[in-house]
């Protein structure tokens, strides 16, 4: 496969145009060396496809981009869907596969089940497209009847300034709740349609499940902060810098709730019994190392009577270390902002942990090694104004899985306390 790709890339490119001596930006370029080499030696670019694109197709691509900024064809006057007199072709969707120009009625109709698409509106007097919203075109989204896709006979309008955070921006959406007898509460109607409400009483903000999933992955892989993620959503909404209604704090709350719910769901706590989420046992929701030996899970029944030479297979190895860089400022407290799952997974429950630390002797560990600066720094520098001056944890040494309830905050460096 690799060979084929390489052969193809050389065949489409005329490499005779490039020679080593042409690349005068090379730092180690040496005139004398070049003189010794045969002049006709072909120079191979690092990315032949890029060179080919730059030489032959760049202008075509540019024209295609510009074509998308316009109406496509001068001939299109009426809506390309209904083609009715008086229905001018004025609206185009950025997210639909089709780039058809539609009238207002058709645009609303085809987006009945796609309320978070981004619509462009043609301005005939100034001759360009600008962003508009489906809400301003008259789209109302019915909740509570979404499974049957019918309108409710007694719709109840949601808050006039309802905002939805989605992965393509911040949207104004006109929701109608179901007002039928026995209808579910508003927040539950939103949840049934994959919208996560920021509050349960008369919600004004929600995020789509997709948006919360994206933020979850972005915060874990490229380490995107919540502020940067929200800022990106605002930029996607308006590149000119016009700010939509500020819902940053709501995103923080929803993302925290979302992560906690995923933790409970994966741990088998489904919420069917009362207090099922609150009563998780210490460390119950942590993911255990699948490779480390666990009796009854991945060990043979006779593992205890194994020969001495095989004992190492059935031994679990632990490693313990602390990071003094991972500090947390004293911005709030456990009392003001209590944990949603104290001690449910990897961190120890803060309350008994703090009580235990208070009862332990306040003895500073002295470094006897002149070269070990980490310990000295941890004991002396930058501990004022911090709720935690580092984190210590126990992991399985072979696979680096963190053990349940094996992560604890450090206060004022590293201390050793006898049990
Ligand atoms: Zn139409
Ligand atoms: Zn669309
Ligand atoms: Zn209804
Ligand atoms: Zn392990």
TrEMBL record:
Domain CxC2-like cysteine cluster KDZ transposase-associated: 134-238
Highest taxon of the lineage: Eukaryota
Cited Pfam families: CxC2, KDZ
InterPro entries to which the protein is assigned, alphabetical: CxC2_KDZ-assoc (IPR041457), KDZ (IPR040521)
Name the UniProt record assigns to this protein: CxC2 domain-containing protein
């Amino acid at each position: 496969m690799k060979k084929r790709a390489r052969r193809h890339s050389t065949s489409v490119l005329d490499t005779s145009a490039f020679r080593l001596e042409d690349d005068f930006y090379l730092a180690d370029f040496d005139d004398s060396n070049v003189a010794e080499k045969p002049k006709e030696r072909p120079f191979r670019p690092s990315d032949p496809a890029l060179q080919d694109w730059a030489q032959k197709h760049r202008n075509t691509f540019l024209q295609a981009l510009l074509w998308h900024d316009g109406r496509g064809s001068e001939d299109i006057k009426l809506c390309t869907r209904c083609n009715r007199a008086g229905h001018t072709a004025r609206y185009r969707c950025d997210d639909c596969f089709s780039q058809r120009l539609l009238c207002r009625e058709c645009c609303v109709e085809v987006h009945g089940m796609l309320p978070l698409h981004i619509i462009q509106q043609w301005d005939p007097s100034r001759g360009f497209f600008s962003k508009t919203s489906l809400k301003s075109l008259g789209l109302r989204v019915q909740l509570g009847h979404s499974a049957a896709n019918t309108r409710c006979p007694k719709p109840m309008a949601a808050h006039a300034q309802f905002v939805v955070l989605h992965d393509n921006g911040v949207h104004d959406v006109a929701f109608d709740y179901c007002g039928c007898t026995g209808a579910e509460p508003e927040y539950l109607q939103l949840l049934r349609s994959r919208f996560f409400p920021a509050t349960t009483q008369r919600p004004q903000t929600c995020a789509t499940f997709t948006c919360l999933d994206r933020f979850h992955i972005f915060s874990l892989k490229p380490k995107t902060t919540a502020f940067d993620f929200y800022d990106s959503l605002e930029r996607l909404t308006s590149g000119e810098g016009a700010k939509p209604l500020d819902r940053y704090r709501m995103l923080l709350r929803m993302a925290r709730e979302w992560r906690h719910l995923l933790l409970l769901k994966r741990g088998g706590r489904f919420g069917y019994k009362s207090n099922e989420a609150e009563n998780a046992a210490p460390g119950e929701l942590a993911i255990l190392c699948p490779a480390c030996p666990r009796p009854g899970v991945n060990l043979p029944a006779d593992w205890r009577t194994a020969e001495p030479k095989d004992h190492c297979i059935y031994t679990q190895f632990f490693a313990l270390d602390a990071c003094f860089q991972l500090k947390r400022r004293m911005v709030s407290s456990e009392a003001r902002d209590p944990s949603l799952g104290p001690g449910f997974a990897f961190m120890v429950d803060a309350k008994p942990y703090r009580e235990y630390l208070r009862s332990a002797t306040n003895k500073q560990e002295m470094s006897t090694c002149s070269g070990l600066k980490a310990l000295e720094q941890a004991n002396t520098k930058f501990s004022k104004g911090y709720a935690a001056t580092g984190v210590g944890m126990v992991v399985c040494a072979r696979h680096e899985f963190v053990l349940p309830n094996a992560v604890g905050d450090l206060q004022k460096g590293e201390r050793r306390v006898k049990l």
